[in-house]
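Example record

One chain of 272 residues, shown exactly as stored in the release files.
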Amino acid sequence: LSLIEEFSSALKDEFKSYLPDLLPRILDSICYPIETGSAEVPTKVLQTLEGFGTQLSDYIHMVLPAVVRIFETISTAVYIRRLAINTMERLCRKLNFSDYASRIIHPLARVLNEGGELTVTVMDCLCALAYQLGSEYCAFIPMIAKVVARHRISHARYAVIEKKLSAHEPLLPEDIGESQTIMSTPVDAEPTTVERIKVNQLNLKKVWDASHKSTKADWNEWLRKFSVELLRESPSPALRSCKNLAQQYHPLARELFNASFYSCWDELYDAN
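Predicted structure tokens for this chain:
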């Protein structure tokens, strides 16, 4: 999953073409009852889905049921349920959920009706959804109001949003609060600075030495080792993360040869 995230971040929109094959396999890993499995898997899956961001725009119908199932299942650990709701909240600032509003808000209302420690998390998510949906959210206000009244829930931001929508007033970014504004930064946004990893030129020099190579088998073995070493020494974290897989699956090393070679070339001293 970490490697998939790296590819997603590097390829951006080009990565979308691989999602139809990858998403079913990723989502299958959280289709079992989470209370009987390790929490590490659903945690990583949710983080990966969040990292995909806008790339999921054509696959909301696949992702939504899986995330909802996690936070709606009472037997699931509370912190996993909270993470699923937070994931939904952040995705709704990246994806258009207007066609799926009822499939999100009704399950959230059921969780809210539990009156447990997820109350604030659910209310925060409802604020983000209401901000995206605008006047369309008015249809859900009476239902949520009943639950809020039943459990005497107080949430200042939601109260402001509910009041404005009921009065047909436009919502402002400030209405979803400072923390929401900070979190609205895209998860997969480019960092302003990327720390480059230094290339060990001595290791590369040892491997690129082509002396005593004469047969076809010699050159094939030399290319295999050189391709993997380029990935190992690449200053790009994304390319470096591929080295272990490339050692086991050489076609990947060949496929990434040009990119890894170019990334190392700029780091070489003139003498080399």
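Notes: The chain has 16 helices and no strands.
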